[in-house]
Write a structure and sequence with these properties.
This protein is mainly beta and about 475 residues long. The protein folds into three domains: about 170 residues, Immunoglobulin-like (Sandwich); about 170 residues, Immunoglobulin-like; about 120 residues, Cupredoxins -  blue copper proteins (Immunoglobulin-like). It is about 10% helix and about 40% strand. It is built from five helices and 33 strands. Strands 22, 23, 25, 27, 28, 29 and 31 form a seven-stranded mixed beta sheet that branches. The chain has a six-stranded mixed beta sheet with strand order 12-11-14-19-16-17, with no helix packed on it. The protein binds copper (II) ion. Copper (II) ion binds next to loops.
Length: about 475
Amino acid sequence: MSKIAVGGGMLLTGCDSLQKLQKKITLHPGEQQAASDAAERTRPADITLRIGSVVADIANDHAISTIGYNGSVPGPLIRLKEGVPVNVELINETGSPELVHWHGLIVPPNVDGADEENSLAVPAYGAIRYTLTPTPPGSRFVHSHSMPMADLSRGTYTGQFGFVYVEPRMNPGHFDQEVFLATHEWEPFFTTEEMADPDEPTPTPPPNYKKDNKPNGWEIGYQKFTINGKCLGYGEPVRVKKGQRVLFHFLNASATENIKLALPGHRFLISGLDGNPVPKPQLVDVIELGTAERADAFVEMDNPGVWILGTPKDDDRANGLGIVVEYSEKSGPPIWTPPPKSLWDYTQFGDSRPPETPDETIPLAFGKVNGGVGGFNFWTVNGKCFENRDAPRVLHRDRRYRLVFDNRTDDAHPVHLHRSSVQLVSINGKATGGLVKDVVLVKGFGKVEVDVVPTIAGLSLFHCHQQLHMDFGFKLLFNIV
Ligand SMILES: [Cu+2]
């Protein structure tokens, strides 16, 4: 693939038609470049994302002024075909450079959309074009990868997110209706309150754990919660019919929140995690999604009524985190009943196949330095914040690395590795097999082992997907050679 500078941005060319065009007409190199530029500019891109101001109408008399893709929140559903290259055009109508990250896709670093990997940025009031080959198949997503730090009007706090569905070559199974639902929170504010989930057991620190005497620093709270950009009861309901089998694709597009979802009177048959099929689909009452996680779930519509699909947290549901599921010919106020208490555990979807022996084991210990009153907490991996990190750790392509996540904090961290999928090996000492993910929620003081076999050379970012954690140190770079 050749890189050609165009105006304020970069253009990547590599499409067949262009190569054919260049073969047909013999041109000198300078003329060739001009011709390819012109051909590329006149040909409409397969995917165009326009980053610009959006007024998101989230509830009665409640509009949010934010930044989004193509004038909507979430952005348009992008359907791609596995292995079929697409030409992508990114247009930035804002005054700040932006990064568009293809979350969960295994792509080269220049198009991955992470500053740390030296990816192409979309300049302020500029545009870039490149070619992307979508893989692996399944539910992925696209989101801003800019670093908001203390500016809660930027990055993942905005409406810059949208589903990317890479159509599998294999049929995912029979369904009558497919529904994509993305959760997001709005009007973030700094708070000192730590919002513990009453349904979660209190994390137990290890015996040698030393508590930081400095008070905890800023956390983030939100005023409003939405599914597909609408507060509960404001948008269109999910309309279903008795006897239908509905395939839900859930995405937690939050900046900082790990969430749970339930649908009273129904159970979810979890068939995929982070877009990848699980070996043992299981029925669950409650789905848990760490920031940036996805789940695919079949629901048999066999309980006619008008229901709330929403969070079991009453306050958050009252502030919008839910959507109405309405059977045909049923009416009335939507019904919520609390789901049975259940704990989410990835291993229930895995099988007993033993992992291959890794070539190398890499321990990654997560730490926290409290920020004190009015300060920001800092986050460390193996004792270091990203700013103080040495040269990127080298990984070799096609070698198997076992990453050992050792969470020495009481926070749950949804950790994400760019440009590779990981295979879960064990969760808190419990072995599992066949589960492939790109975000792994490591609970407070939890220990998780995953294997990764990198395939595409270049820098690869590992970070916590909780925006405040990532911005304040929780990052590490690998260099794949
Ligand atoms: Cu984190």
